[in-house]
Amino acid sequence: QVQLVESGGGSVQAGGSLRLSCAASGIRFSICTMDWYRQAPGNQRELVARISNDGRTNYADSMEGRSTISRDNAQNTVYLQMNSLKPEDAAVYYCSADHPSGIRYWGQGTQVTVSS
User: Fold this and answer.
1) Are 84 and 34 in contact (CB under 8 A)?
2) pLDDT score at 114
3) Are residues 81 and 19 in contact, defined by beta-carbon separation less than 8 angstroms?
4) In degrees, to the nearest 5, what angle opens at C-alpha 96 toward C-alphas 19 and 18?
5) Whole-angstrom Cα distance, residue 54 to residue 74?
């Protein structure tokens, strides 16, 4: 079955950096658009960054210039490098695979905590 396993979350001070990883299995990773979402308590899940199967990227305004999404199709892995983290970036970060069939798959999430 399809599995998306996130890692790299943790606690960091404001201004710090984290690199999230998401390893995919059971899916043709290279044909999927890969997304990172986040959800803070009491908030809706929101898109943070997206990378298409041909490498085009999009970012939420709040993360533009502070984050970089990348993918390694040989390793079936997508990354999210986040810099200059702010307390408002604290959330559970989810990896998501948008398959061309229209099915979206989700990982279990990884917690990011940012202290001021």
Assistant:
1) no
2) 98
3) yes
4) 10
5) 14
Point out the residues of the chain with pLDDT beneath 50: none
Backbone angles phi, psi at 29, to 5 degrees: -55, -40
- Taking the alpha carbons at both ends of the chain, their separation in whole angstroms is 40
Residue-level pLDDT at 108? 97
Neighbours of 91 (CB within 10 A): 22
Measured CA to CA, the distance from residue 23 to residue 28 in angstroms comes to 12
CA atoms within 13 A on the CB side of 68: 6
Residue type, 43: N
pLDDT the model gives residue 45? 97
pLDDT for position 53? 97
Q: Is 2 exposed, middle or buried (0-12, 13-18, 19+ CB in 10 A)?
A: middle
Partner residues linked to 68 by β-bridges: 81
